[in-house]
Write the structure tokens for this entry.
Amino acid sequence: MTAIASRAQLRISFLRYALVTVPAILLLGTISGLLSNSGYENGWFAALDKPSFMPPGWAFPVAWTLLYIGLGLSLAMILHARGARGRALALALFFAQLALNYAWSPLFFAAHKVDLAFLVIVAMIVLAAATALLFRRIRPVAALLLLPYLAWLCFAAALNFEIGRLNPGAETLAPAGSSADIPL
């Protein structure tokens, strides 16, 4: 029997991928942020001078949730495109940039490596742009879903750069409220 899958079967197949990729990407991103104590609750980060264009704290979890959903859907589209030319390289680049994404919060918020985190985010932008170009050849909508992510990465890189500029020696700053003094 040589039947071609119906549209409904193809949609169900895509949904199966998305039901794995979206929660997985969201979960791993959330874990990365939680383990590195990312955000305004981090004493070290709270003590830093911030650029004037820094969004309020609530904007980051909202933005990252939406961006991770887009990444998960984009990935599901490419995984669903079995047999597509260039798929293996596109997936390799996607996972490389995603690994850098998950490494950024621990570098910045936990290790306080502002300059190294900036280099990581620049590499992330390059890999995500290359991923989008390769995704476009396979599934144009998958590439479109990466555009808000790329825009946010550029914005985040600008924030990272400005925080580094405004806070030279930031990695040596102690978190607010902590002290090495012995109480008397």
